[in-house]
């Protein structure tokens, strides 16, 4: 990909050369939006305001998230907030149909026509879109010293090959649910390491207080990779080497972590054999029906657990960071959608203006309140209105601080299938080292 200061990427039409100072001035002067100041692109550069000759027309594509409003309403608000940029909203399927969302974006971006100009994307697509030359590097628009307002884990997931190619928007991550009433009976302290969790869970199970000590997701699916990322990272292990060119899945830290998951079924028996066929919902249902003590799952579970029509554990659950191994630290697999700019956009400056607005403190605040989607800016978790209207979300800052991205590689689609198959075989057979050795060889062939 050609550096954007020197010219457009392959396949795009030439654009007028604009210096970094000009681009920053566009954001500060022409945009004048709340998000620009928040991102550190403040006033005081001593240059004149840039004015657009006519309203630039761009498009925004995203999976369809709904709450008290829609993303269409959000784009309408942007259009009405200024008279320089007019955005057409392209609504893709719901995030539950992520394959269709992904395919829809790929089909449009691969045409290299510049549509959509701005798009939202699952964190696991960022590296692939960048490697394909579809995502515009954003470093000169948002310099490194201006990114401290975001969670570091989200920034890492938005970075590929040393370049920022996406801007944080909203996030989710794995978290540790527990029964407050059962835990009180068995010590009262939330376990911070996996061994303590297993001990407490086994005791509660033996006492007949619950049927299952610990529920997680072992189905051969993407969520199994998420569970694996969390437990491996919490043992100071990793799936890929830092350069993304080789596998570490068969190293001791990773093997011991997967062995622990197998042990929850085969040794301590705090997890039922059925977890090997469960994804999120099958594991959620026994927990909210009052049959389990601990569970790993996503944030969506909390409002269900607090709904008396769907839950037997209303006001009896707590949420904390996932446990870790001795010497490790809690890790939560990062989810959520982040923002990108089409490298072939014919209206780059207008696209950056929209991007800045969407990721601003004010817009993230609106999304948190109206969609229930967690912001990627830590400061917003201290916001009094969010604390009042979304108290559960406001309590998650510690969980999100430990957010870890899944393997960052343009070959992620192949890597995740290999991981799902290899880890599943290890959990079923119990031959963890042998299966991880075979899996490492397979992944090395993919990424090497």
UniProtKB/TrEMBL annotation:
Location, primary (coarse class): periplasm
GO CC terms in record: periplasmic space
Keywords: Membrane, Periplasm, Signal, Transmembrane, Transmembrane helix, Transport
Highest taxon of the lineage: Bacteria
Similarity-based family: Belongs to the bacterial solute-binding protein 1 family.
Location(s), subcellular: Periplasm
Protein name per UniProt: Sugar ABC transporter
Coiled coil ranges: none
Classification lineage: Bacteria, Pseudomonadati, Pseudomonadota, Alphaproteobacteria, Hyphomicrobiales
This protein's record includes keyword Signal: yes
Keyword Transmembrane helix part of the UniProt annotation: yes
Transmembrane segments: 26-47
């Amino acid at each position: 990909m050609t550096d954007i200061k020197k010219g457009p990427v392959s396949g795009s039409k030439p654009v007028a050369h604009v210096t970094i100072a000009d681009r920053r001035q566009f954001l500060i002067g022409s945009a004048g939006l709340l998000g620009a100041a928040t991102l550190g692109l403040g006033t005081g550069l001593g240059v004149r305001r840039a004015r657009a000759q006519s309203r630039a027309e761009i498009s925004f594509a995203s999976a369809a998230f709904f709450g008290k409003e829609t993303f269409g309403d959000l784009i309408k608000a942007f259009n009405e907030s200024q008279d320089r940029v007019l955005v057409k909203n392209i609504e893709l399927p719901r995030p539950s149909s992520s394959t269709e969302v992904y395919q829809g974006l790929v089909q449009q971006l691969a045409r290299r026509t510049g549509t959509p100009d701005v798009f939202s994307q699952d964190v696991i697509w960022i590296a692939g879109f960048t490697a394909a030359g579809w995502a515009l590097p954003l470093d000169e628009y948002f310099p490194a010293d201006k990114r401290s307002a975001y969670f570091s884990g989200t920034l890492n997931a938005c970075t590929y090959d040393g370049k920022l190619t996406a801007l944080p928007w909203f996030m989710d991550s794995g978290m540790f649910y527990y029964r407050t009433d059962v835990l009180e009976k068995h010590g009262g302290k939330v376990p911070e390491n996996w061994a303590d969790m297993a001990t407490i869970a086994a005791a509660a199970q033996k006492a007949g207080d619950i049927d299952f000590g610990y529920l997680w997701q072992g189905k051969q699916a993407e969520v199994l990779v998420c569970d694996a990322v969390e437990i491996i990272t919490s043992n100071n292990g990793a799936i890929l080497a830092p350069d993304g060119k080789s596998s570490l899945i068969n190293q001791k830290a990773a093997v011991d972590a997967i062995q622990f998951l197998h042990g929850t079924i085969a040794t301590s028996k705090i997890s039922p054999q059925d977890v090997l066929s469960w994804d999120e919902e099958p594991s959620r249902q026994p927990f909210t029906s009052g049959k389990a003590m601990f569970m790993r799952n996503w944030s969506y579970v909390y409002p269900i657990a607090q709904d008396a029509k769907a839950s037997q554990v209303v006001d009896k659950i707590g949420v904390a960071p996932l446990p870790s191994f001795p010497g490790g630290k809690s890790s939560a697999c990062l989810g959520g959608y982040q923002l990108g700019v089409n490298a072939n956009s014919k209206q780059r400056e207008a696209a950056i203006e929209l991007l800045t607005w969407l990721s601003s403190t004010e817009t993230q605040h609106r999304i948190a309140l109206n969609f229930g989607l967690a912001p990627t800016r830590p400061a917003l978790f201290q916001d009094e209105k969010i604390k009042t209207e979304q108290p559960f979300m406001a309590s998650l800052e510690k969980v999100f601080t430990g957010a870890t991205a899944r393997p960052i590689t343009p070959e992620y689609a192949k890597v995740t299938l290999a991981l799902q198959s290899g880890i599943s075989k290890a959990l079923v057979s119990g031959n963890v080292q042998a299966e991880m050795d075979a899996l490492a060889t397979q992944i090395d062939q993919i990424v090497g």
